[in-house]
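Figure-free illustration: sequence to structure, shown twice.
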Amino acid sequence: MSKTKSSRLRYNSLGDKIFDTCNIIFMLCLVTVTLYPFINMFAISFNDANDAIKGGIYLWPRMWTWSNYQYIFNESAIYHSTFISVIRTVLGTVISVFCTAMLAYTLSRQDYVLRKFVTMFFVFTMYFSGGLIPGYLLIKNLGLTDSFWVYIIPGIIGVFNMIVIRSFIEGLPEGILESARIDGAGEFTTFLRVVLPLTVPSLATVSLFVAVGQWNSWFDVFLYNSSNQQLSTLQYELMKILQTSNTATTQSAADIYAQSSSTHTVTPTSIRATMTIVASVPILMVYPFVQKYFVQGMTVGGVKG
């Protein structure tokens, strides 16, 4: 009883209270710095573009309007490009994570003779590349230009993602894999039925990385499929809308101030904020489902990688 009382007194000491207060203040500042840019973009996207030019919009729209979103969603190509982006993200994530996990499992086996050589071969590509022009010529010679598969095949293996998954697999008890082999399971069956279910945290972490990269990518569309509207993605269409808005904005600030709000004028600032919200919402909807695995997967990969 006396020990409990003394420990309670130590916890309620002045030093503990100061630490708790500083910790809470620091975390509140961190949350504010993290969330404020997104909240500010949200406020600007729902604010009248003419009024937004005056500045002073921080956490809440001053003049509510849907005109910025109407301007974007009135583009007929948006809906088909969104479908292409969704298909690209889902298919690209599944194929990339599965193939990367198979490679990681292979390189995690201590009895694989070329384990160190193949690992260094892949790691080498993280620091050196052939460059933009040789990469374009390679894609062209492979016949992937003007094709949907140019979004999937070139990035099918991520070296950093492979290291994260391999580090997690190496931490699994060897006895589990040995018991599967004793029961007659081959390497692929062991990988599919034993390794994959046990590496869900690392797979969820890598899936988030790959999905965000696939969803946000637009430069490969510009390089390889810019002439094919049927293969355009949402990010590329939003980029074109922003460029059109920048080109069309030839009025001076004074002229814009003088316009009536009923004209629903859009500006590059309002379009940029609206694009940020439109592009971010799908990822924000997916993140809560993998958040519980994210910290665990990154911790294991960071410690052992």
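We now fold a second protein in the same way, so the two outputs can be compared directly.
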Amino acid sequence: MLDAKMPEAWRVLRIQSELVDGIEQLIKVRGAVTVFGSARTPPEHPYYKAAETLGRLFAESGIPVITGGGPGIMEASNKGAKMAGGDSVGLNITLPMEQDPNPYQTISLTFRYFFVRKFMFVKHAIGFVIMPGGFGTLDELFEALTLVQTGKVEPFPIVLVDKGYWKGLVTWLTSTMLADGNINALDMKLIQLVDTPQEAVDIIKAHVVKKSAQAAH
């Protein structure tokens, strides 16, 4: 949300301040997994339970969890991580009518600018796990795919949970975008589909092991 009364030069300084503060606060959570999903998912929904399990499994594996800090899937993932004694990070955003930070964050940051927040989602991530969600979730998914596809970030797993939910999107990508030559077969391999939190965690852990082996050589 922009402050219309703020001179442009001062706005740049505010952006710089958010960047510096975010980087400093998140130094200790290198090697984190970022979890996205709907803010509208209620606690009684199976997706909420799955996201809570996901957060717990990552925490038990020593992998910090980063979310957008809000309700729904974000809250569930933070809750699972915090209750298991892990690092549970919320990157909250200032919005006109929402959102209140969920209470399950061991590190809580609040951003004014979406693009600074997005940078923080990626900076320390070793993987993205995408739970069912809406426009915001799709925005984060396709931004991650674009960054990896274009080599702007070191490749990391992008895992979509619940094959049934994502089937229509993946089918369209294959039958339309791939068929028209707007992406290629390697691009489609950037997406990994699973049905359970455990499968998602296993993919991220395998990536960590592979990176460690490469670093050792």
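Summary for the second example: The chain has one domain: 17-164+191-216.
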